[in-house]
Amino acid sequence: MDDKPTPMKSRDNLKLCLQRSSVLVKLWEFLTTYFLALGVTLMLIIGSQWPTSGAFLIKIHFPYICLALCFLVCGLRTKTDEITVAFKSYKAIVWGILTILLVVPITGTQITKTIQFATMMTDNMTTSESAVVGNVTAIGPTEFAFALQVFFVVPASMSAGAILSLIAGGNFSLALLLMVVTNSVGVFIVSAMLVWLTDLSSGVSLTRLGEITLVFFLNCFLPTVCGKLLRLVRVVAEKVDKHENSFNFAIAFLYVLSTWCEVSRARIEKEFYNIISMNIFIIVGYSSIMHIMFLVLNWIASGFLGLSLPVKKTIVIVGSHKAVAFALKIIEFLSNDVGSHRLMSIVCIIAYLTLLVLDSLIVCKWSTIREEKESEGGKTNPRGKYGTMPQEDD
């Protein structure tokens, strides 16, 4: 004889269903909040374990395609009021340029120079091309230290900074403006700054560095302009605003895919297998400490300048991020006297990926800060976890 449902059993079943649904809701909120960080971590695993796949994607220009589509969607998301706010934020623009082109390069290179030289084990000599005979820096051969100095000197990231700013709820237009200005100026001053701040005896040809700016305009700036022009069509703007959360996740997804190739690029280099694990951990640790220091510095400066939260997020992220493509191009055109170019390239990529992982975690949390503040005032946020600062419609 079957047991008949009793009120007690019904309440227990209802309680169990609510508990299960609560767990699923929390899991979904976690996945949506930290989608970028989880995606970047997944790409690190895939790119390191199956580097040949990333090498193939590089050949078909997959990362450029992803970034171009990403900036096209960013342009579709950019509203006129956000552009106006960006150009009116003169304090943020001035400090952003100063911190990207002067504060971070000078601080980063000089601190790296203070690393004490120490005699290491013979098996720690990670390249036969190194000019070092017996003494190497605490983070490896001299190539490591010089590569990090180059990484600190280069301008703001030509893609990641703006995208991460948008996801964090910052001002995408301001981020793009800082990227354009600092990379354009960087073409003319980075070579001289390397000679000034490092032991490099001669600079790099400006015409060669000009290639980087051209790629940036074609791959990032032009798609953004095209997206913004498409948004001027009212029907397009209405569709984008209606499905805004989906577009925001599309931006994060495309950016995550673009990082795949960077991991594989470092992994397929034969010099990568000559680097001992301890050196890699030290590079990651040192890069993390320096990056966190720059994040805190820019956060304090932004607070001192009285910047709004979206603008502050942009300055902190863009002002602390670095253009790995710029650094790799500089290393490519250096003379052989500085050491192994491939080894230095690997160090720059490792440092960049370290910054990317840290920023992805910070950005994911920052994307919820505005929502929490709005909810205290009884407001709701239709943008979900990702989105730029609230703007009026075009």
TrEMBL record:
<keyword id="KW-0472">Membrane</keyword>
<feature type="region of interest" description="Disordered">
    <location>
        <begin position="373"/>
        <end position="394"/>
    </location>
</feature>
<feature type="transmembrane region" description="Helical">
    <location>
        <begin position="144"/>
        <end position="167"/>
    </location>
</feature>
<keyword id="KW-0812">Transmembrane</keyword>
<feature type="transmembrane region" description="Helical">
    <location>
        <begin position="56"/>
        <end position="78"/>
    </location>
</feature>
<protein>
    <submittedName>
        <fullName>Sodium/metabolite cotransporter BASS4</fullName>
    </submittedName>
</protein>
<feature type="transmembrane region" description="Helical">
    <location>
        <begin position="275"/>
        <end position="301"/>
    </location>
</feature>
<feature type="transmembrane region" description="Helical">
    <location>
        <begin position="209"/>
        <end position="230"/>
    </location>
</feature>
<feature type="transmembrane region" description="Helical">
    <location>
        <begin position="30"/>
        <end position="50"/>
    </location>
</feature>
<dbReference type="InterPro" id="IPR038770">
    <property type="entry name" value="Na+/solute_symporter_sf"/>
</dbReference>
<feature type="transmembrane region" description="Helical">
    <location>
        <begin position="90"/>
        <end position="111"/>
    </location>
</feature>
<dbReference type="Pfam" id="PF13593">
    <property type="entry name" value="SBF_like"/>
</dbReference>
<dbReference type="InterPro" id="IPR016833">
    <property type="entry name" value="Put_Na-Bile_cotransptr"/>
</dbReference>
<feature type="transmembrane region" description="Helical">
    <location>
        <begin position="174"/>
        <end position="197"/>
    </location>
</feature>
<feature type="transmembrane region" description="Helical">
    <location>
        <begin position="343"/>
        <end position="364"/>
    </location>
</feature>
<keyword id="KW-1133">Transmembrane helix</keyword>
<comment type="similarity">
    <text>Belongs to the bile acid:sodium symporter (BASS) (TC 2.A.28) family.</text>
</comment>
